[in-house]
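Record minuted for everyone:
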Amino acid sequence: MLWNYGVVLDAGSSGTRVHIYKWLKSDKARKNHGSLHKLPEVSTDKKWTKKTHPGISTFGTHPHDVGPDHLDELFKHALKYVPKDEVANTPLFLLATAGMRILPDLQRKSVLEEVCAYARKSTKFQLPDCDLHVQVIPGETEGLYGWIAANYLLGGFDDPEEHDHGKNHHTYGFLDMGGASAQIAFAPNETEAERHANDLTLLRLRTLNGTPLEYKVFVTTWLGFGVNQARQRYVMQLLESSINAKEYPDPCLPTNAAIMVSDDGKVIESGSGKKGHKLVGTGVFTECLTKSFPLLEKEKECLDAPCLINGQHTPAIDFDVNHFVGVSEYYHTTHEIFKMAAKDDEEYDFKTYQKAVDEFCSKSWKDIEKGIKNKTWGKIDEQTAQEVCFKSSWLINVLHDGIGVPRVGLENLNNNVTKVKVGGKHGSKKGFINPFQAVNKINDVEVSWTLGKMVLYAASEVPPNTTDALAVGFGANVPGIPSNFQVPGGSHVPYMSQADSEWHDRLFSENSRRIPGFLIFTLIVVMICYFTCCGRERRHAARQKIGDMLGRGGSSDRQSGSLLHRRRRPFLDKLFGRGGNIQSYERVLEDGDTPNDFELGSFISDDEEHSDSSEGSARLGRTSGWATPQLKETGTPTFDPSRGDVVAQGSGLGLAPPGVFANAIDRDGLMSRTDSRERMARSRAGSPKRGKFGVLDA
């Protein structure tokens, strides 16, 4: 295959969206590109994206349902477009944002663990490190990924000479605003970067030729400063200003528009039957701007100057070189209704924009309802029309009074600002002279932080051009690899090591590392056939033949009962059950081994009644099988011709306790032993079983 693939799930508060990306494998990319001083070219397709509702944070109390009820649909969608042969090599990421951040720790952990378990169980995507691939990312990380995506699409990384903003600066700033939080990310000018070095994040990428690219970026997030959270704070402020009023005049609603809100500032849906407070619009946008301004909380003490919003430190922004792109609410609030922003390539102009908002908000609500039905402003609904006045006031306050973006149309820009081409080979060719531009897509590719995540991962896949090259990723702005450095993904785990149900694919692969598995499998099959298909006599014959093949070369070894021979094949004895059988015991008697050559098996009884801890009789009462000689512990030895006096035989082998029997070399013992041999030899000669298996082949 020519392509690498990656899957990222953006788990937001309202839903989860799956994104699929692809890029050429490094060796192919190096052959296809004229210039290798570029990042891997990551691409996607409209149909590769799919969203499902609600967010995974709603599964906090029942995490086991997040797989079948939420993720399953997204995984199936991804598997439709990732080639089957590449699934096992495709990394999977689920990165959660605002919704999961507010869950209790235990619920958040349970949901993430269930996500990982379900992904590993139901797919074969690469998921080597759940802590890294499935996690809740902080707002700063989300902002950094967005900064990467914007600069990648605009061409600031690959074509710096075409994006020279002056002062050796060629990257763009990034602004993002959602419902709960807002982020900012930018590379300060050289003076500010040196002054606030400890506040910056070191980002390291790698081009196709293995050369590292390093950037020092400032990133921060303002929690509670997203449009929905800001709107709630605004409504609560409005309610506090007139306690127990029947109606509350709201300049941030179109004229005569009316809504019901709860004590905590949330809108109550009509028909719900819930009681609340009635807000009635006055449609005075300039007053809306004034009343929403305090929400910036610029009066908070700045402990580490300079600060922008909420007393949070931010290095000074040099708008001569820092040109920003705004996504999410920055785009939707300027593009959903107002004609001036109907096209992506129209530049943001503060004077024109404020005039359009003021005209809309001063309209009567009845006229706006008619316009919605007639689609005067495109496909918008009543809720969007009710919210746009406050959203516009909040966006203007954040941009110009909070961040300090110059008001284009009212304030003169520095003459040193140059006109640059946005995008290079990635983006559309358009002028970008203003310090702020709202965008949604560049060259039909959505500016999403998920793209930034995958660009970083693709760069990490490129082999370095030196052996001492540092890893791709981001962390504290210190030399080398800081302790908090985060790599784009876990170590790649070859598919052969993943535990899955397709064991036969791994077992019979051509890979030489899997050959031992095949041998073990073959041995298991042979053993099953051996024990199930062969009778007792055939198994005995097989054992004898295997024994003959394994080293009976010398004349002494041909003695069927040689102890030396038995010690050379302990594995076969254990495997085929030879230890402790009666045939082995009889051959010991035939060979005439000395008493010291005979050893009992290593069996130790678990029953304390059959053990003895005394030194003089350590083996007394132990048995290694049903054919072990029985011992008489008391009385005097008697000779019984009918049974060959097994007790006397045991005495001759040194198995009796001290003092019970006479020495093995006295005459009575020797006669008993000789007589017993003769009896046993005669009994063997007439045994059809022994003749059949050829034990007495001497």
Notes: Residues 1-137 form a domain with the Nucleotidyltransferase; domain 5 fold (CATH 3.30.420.40). The first strand starts at residue 3 and ends at 11. The chain has a mean pLDDT of 76.
